[in-house]
Amino acid sequence: MVIHTQHWVSSAFGIRMKLSFTTKATLGCLCLILANGFQVSEDESLMIIGPEYSQIEADPGEPLVLHCDVFTKSDTDETLIYWLVNGSFPEDTLSHDRIIESNESSLEKGSILHKSLLLKNITAEDLNSTFCCVVTSVQEVVQKSITIKATTHGCGGNKRKKN
C-alpha cells in the first residue's frame, strides 16, 4: 500500500513551494518513508530532506531563494533551524541588507520544518560563499550546504542578445 500526500509551503517572501510526500509505502513487512523522493531514516531524529550538499546555478544580479526542509521525529524536543553564510549569521554579515532569512514554518504537525534564505541579488561575493542550513535538537545537529555558481549561456558563456 502506498499513501501519497502533497503540501504547499508559502514563504515569508510570497513564494510557494510544493512538497510532495510519499508518507508510507508498505510491502509486506517492509515500510519505507520518503519525503520529496528521499528516504527518511527511522533511526535519526533529524533528517535533511534532499542532498546535504548542492551547487546551484544562478544569474548574477538576479534574486535567489534557498530552501531548507528537515524531517524531525521529535515531539517534545526544541528543534532550531537557521542559516549561516560562511559560518556567520546572515544579519552579522556585510550583506545583511541583501540576504534575508525567512521565518520558520512547519508541516505535518511540526514533523517537517522549513526555512528559506532570500538573496535579493546574486553578487560575486555570493559565488565564493557557502550557505549552510543548520538544524539542531538535543540529540543531534544536521546541516545542508549550498554553493552558487554563475549560469553559463551557450558557447563561450555569453548571454544571447535580444534583437
From TrEMBL:
* Gene3D superfamilies found in the cross-reference section: Immunoglobulins
Q: What is this protein called?
A: Ig-like domain-containing protein
Q: Which keywords are on file for this protein?
A: Disulfide bond, Glycoprotein, Immunoglobulin domain
The answer on whether this UniProt entry bears the keyword Nucleus reads no
Q: Pinpoint the Ig-like domain residues.
A: 51-147
Which species is the source of this protein? Oryzias javanicus
